[in-house]
Write a structure and sequence with these properties.
The chain is an alpha/beta fold and 447 residues long. 38% of the residues lie in helices and 15% in strands. It has a seven-stranded mixed β-sheet, sandwiched between helices. The protein has a four-stranded mixed β-sheet with strand order 1-2-3-13. The chain binds pyridoxal-5'-phosphate.
């Protein structure tokens, strides 16, 4: 074992979604965090432009949350969630239900976004079965969708690299809508792009192809984050809602990224005015401090499964850590901060300034698109010849070296800072990015 302060042996840890070999030749290690900043292991300050992985919405190391967890760990470290309970799990469920769109007030706890997605898919199947429509077993996802890394999530997801190695073992009855990225029509849109409502009509085609009686649910991210910030076209989600309702198909919004203030409201559903039947949650639910997720279900969906079942366990699903005391304490403390500090409203009022700053990069070198919604921006770069993703990866490293954490997917750079971000920090983030893009351009021009 290495001594404190020494670099540990990096080889035993197999890192997730990471270029392990490259990382281990040039590690980027974080040591501490506070507010808007990380402190790297070498002491440099890094402004968190991505809320960790889209989760630290209230900023880092909030004492209200860390103290609540410490108290809970000392008082009730663990309580089984099967056939037993503890009050804070029920309180946390009630606090979440209060933030959900009207009618989605039944909460099932998981430990991650991926588990929330699997849980929502299983709830959809159980719901139809309970109502005598057990033949509804098909799911419709969307190209470029990200729904976590479980088998359910990668089956309905549409990110090719996440699927191809496992393609023989995906869920059997899944089809996909086309993605909504139309750069020729919508490049440099501010907020929701105008063109693309018609892409929702593809659902009519899939419904006709498979017959509605075989389809359990449609799952989409209301705003796709991990694939590189795809904002829903005006009217698109409304159309999905209309078609699914007409055919008795459940609509699932995967709000693992968008819930808890990212779009200036408690949910994207609330921000965009479209209410699904199930919402998957994680990340900002606990400010990223304790791994936890949840599914919010429409009460009728819950009741069809729970009230309609014979005596005994109604839904054979759950996790050892569903409703964990530490997660419950973290949720309660986190939601309290969001409310007390009006952070969702803060995100909404900062959004126009954020949009302006993001679009100031329109004329920066190699920028082919800028898109934004709430406190999210995606800056797309032209790919290098024969090396897709290389230019954005270069930008990621150079930003980090200058003290800014950005997120990169392919050639898209995503920014989604904690909702406590200050206007001058927003300006600095985009100025830094511009300088980095100029530097990359200058380096490319050098012989
Ligand atoms: C929309 C969406 N769904 C699901 C997930 C998976 O969440 P987790 O990594 O907590 O399993 C993510 C993670 O980024 C996500 O963005």
């Amino acid at each position: 074992m290495s001594a404190p302060g020494e670099l540990p042996d990096l080889s035993p840890l197999w890192m997730p979604f990471t270029a392990n070999r490259a990382f281990k030749t040039r590690p980027r290690l974080l040591a501490r965090a506070s507010g808007m900043h990380y402190t790297a292991a070498d002491g440099t300050q890094v402004l968190d432009g991505t809320s960790g992985l889209w989760c630290v919405n209230a900023g880092h190391c909030r004492t209200e949350i860390t103290e609540a967890i410490a108290r809970q760990a000392a008082e009730l470290d663990y309580a089984p969630g099967f056939q037993l309970g503890h009050p804070d799990a029920f309180r946390a469920a009630a606090a979440i239900a209060e933030l959900m769109p009207e009618g989605l007030d039944r909460i099932f706890f998981t430990n991650s976004g991926s588990e929330s997605v699997d849980t929502a898919l299983k709830i959809a199947l159980a719901y139809h079965r309970a109502r005598g429509e057990g033949q509804r077993t098909r799911f419709i996802g969307r190209e470029r969708g990200y729904h976590g890394a479980g088998f359910g999530g990668i089956s309905v997801g549409g990110i090719v690299s996440n699927r191809k190695a496992f393609s023989g073992a995906l869920l059997p009855a899944v089809d996909h809508l086309p993605h909504t990225h139309l750069p020729r029509d919508n490049a440099f849109s501010r907020g929701q792009p105008v063109v693309g409502t018609h892409l929702a009509d593809e659902l009519e085609r899939l419904v006709a192809l498979h017959d509605p009686s075989t389809i359990a649910a449609v799952i989409v991210e209301p705003m796709a984050g991990s694939t590189g910030v795809l904002v829903p076209p005006v009217g698109y989600l409304e159309r999905l809602r209309e078609i699914t309702s007409r055919h008795g198909i459940l609509l699932i919004f995967d709000e693992v990224i968008t819930a808890f203030g990212r779009l200036g409201a408690a949910t994207a559903s609330g921000a965009l005015g479209v209410t699904p039947d199930l919402i998957t949650l994680a990340k900002g639910i606990s400010n990223g401090v304790v791994p936890v997720g949840a599914v919010a279900a429409r009460r009728q969906v819950h009741d069809a499964i729970v009230e309609g079942a014979p005596a005994g366990i109604e839904f054979f699903h759950g996790y050892t850590y569903s409703g964990h005391p530490l997660a419950s304490a973290a949720i309660l403390a986190t939601l309290d901060i969001y409310r007390r500090e009006s952070l969702f409203e803060r995100a909404r009022s900062l959004a126009p300034l954020f949009e302006e700053a993001a679009h100031s990069l329109r004329d920066a070198p190699q920028v082919v698109d800028v898109r934004n919604l709430g406190l999210v921006a995606g800056i797309e770069l032209a790919p290098r010849d024969g090396a897709p993703g290389a230019r954005a990866a270069d930008a990621f490293q150079r930003c980090f070296d200058r003290g800014l954490l950005v997120r990169v997917t392919g050639d898209v750079i995503a920014l989604s800072p904690p909702l406590i971000v200050e206007p001058d920090q927003i300006a600095w983030m985009f100025e830094t990015l511009r300088r980095v893009l100029q530097e990359i351009d200058a380096a490319a021009g050098r012989p």
